[in-house]
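Consider the tokenized backbone below.
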């Protein structure tokens, strides 16, 4: 028999913007438990974003960029009669957010600027303008789901 589901842990909001989503983002940036460095990177990136885009609310720009990267559908593999099909499924809200965060941070890490805060700022601005690697990842996911729409009747 399966054990019961783990309880949802709620994060403490960050001190500057009072946002739980920002804390969640920083926790994904963090390496080796160095949370203060991760917060520093995040805040420096948002300062750079506010300089690049003439918008006083850099947190709003970041939230819009994150919204632009969130996928609505994804494909999941399902084995039916000896064949494996890629079946499109709608994405749960919590998973949408986590996928967008992971894609944005990994795209930022693969950029060529010197500091991580500069890379992250560039990726946020690119996602805000609906371009860049993280937005392309979302587009590719949607294209794959669209291509396999014929198998959607196998959904369970």
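A designed sequence for it:
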């Amino acid at each position: 028999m399966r054990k019961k589901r783990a309880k949802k842990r709620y994060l403490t909001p960050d001190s500057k913007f009072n946002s739980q989503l920002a804390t969640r983002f920083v926790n994904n940036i963090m390496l080796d438990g160095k949370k203060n460095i991760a917060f520093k990177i995040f805040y420096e990136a948002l300062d750079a974003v506010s300089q690049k885009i003439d918008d006083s609310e850099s947190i709003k720009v970041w939230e819009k960029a994150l919204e632009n990267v969130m996928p609505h559908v994804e494909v999941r593999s399902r084995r039916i009669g000896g064949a494996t099909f890629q079946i499109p499924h709608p994405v749960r809200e919590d998973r949408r957010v986590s996928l967008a965060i992971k894609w944005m941070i990994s795209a930022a890490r693969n950029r060529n600027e010197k500091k991580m805060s500069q890379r992250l700022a560039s990726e946020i601005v690119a996602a805000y303008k609906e371009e860049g690697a993280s937005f392309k990842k979302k587009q590719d996911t949607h294209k794959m789901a669209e291509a396999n729409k014929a198998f959607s009747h196998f959904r369970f």
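The CA atoms of residues 51 and 58 lie 9 Å apart.
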